[in-house]
Amino acid sequence: MPVDPLRDPEQRHRSIYLLPNAFTTAALFAGFYAVVQAMNNRFEMAAIAIFVAMVLDGMDGRVARLTKTTSAFGEQYDSLSDMTSFGVAPALVMYEWMLHDLGRWGWLAAFVYVCGAALRLARFNTNIAVVDKRFFQGLPSPAAGALIAGFVWLVVDNRLQVPKELLAWTAFVITLYCGVAMVSNLPFYSGKSFALGRSVPFWVILVFVAGFVFISSNPPVVLFGLFIVYGLSGWGVWLWRWQRARRSRT
Q1: pLDDT in tens, 42-96
Q2: Does any domain span residue 2?
Q3: CATH code at 238?
Q4: What contacts 132, CB < 8 A, 6 or more positions away?
């Protein structure tokens, strides 16, 4: 007699579900599309594709939890998709756009970013059951990819005037920082403690609409500004924790 996977926890854990994995596949496609557009020197489209991948990546896990279709396969597939969309794609986009002007320093910075993303995802998978779920350990790879994509989009769209002789080195510093921050122990707020159920308060809808209007008013500037703040927030949380621990010892 066949076993119903919805009633058997072990069978359900081994199952493959279409809906959340469809979002993961769409995120993977967006990351691949970003690489293709970068190869065609369409860097604005490449940056936008990385942001689309980030949105889709944020949806697959929530869809899986809301529909109770989480699985080990989905977790591993999501990590492989993240490695492509937020590990390889941002590094290649940045290299094709600006880092290649720095020669070996450029591809070394891109490799540090890719290596940092791989190590970040491997550590996340192995520590997922032992770390504080309220905070990520190290800069999450989607945020790192968004920082890279936001900078590319901002400059290509002529919203950030950087002297040409400094532009390549600015790209180098941002890429290197993202790669190192991903493997750091800095705590970055995860947002997982804010779980949305099937119904939400009215104020959540108002905040969502206000955020959408705010971002759409000037997407390159707003998105890059938001992720700059988030990319530095780990230092603020770390400093606050350090000062609190220091006061508790005195």
Answers
A1: 999 999 999 999 999 988 877 877 777 777 888 889 999 999 999 999 999 999 9
A2: no
A3: 1.20.120.1760
A4: 187
Enter the DSSP assignment of 100. Answer: G
> In angstroms, how far is CA 56 from the centroid of its own chain?
11
Sequence-distant (6+) residues with CB within 8 A of 73 are 14, 15, 16, 21
- Contact (Cβ atoms closer than 8 angstroms) between residue 90 and residue 141: no
For residue range 140-152, list pLDDT tens digits in order: 999 999 999 999 9
Partnered with residue 136 across adjacent β-strands are 188
pLDDT at 18: 79
Smallest CA-to-CA distance from 234 within 151, 143, 170 is with 143
Q: Is residue 1 part of a domain?
A: no
- Residues of the domain holding 212: 9-249
Number of folded domains that form the chain: 1
Q: Is residue 3 part of a domain?
A: no
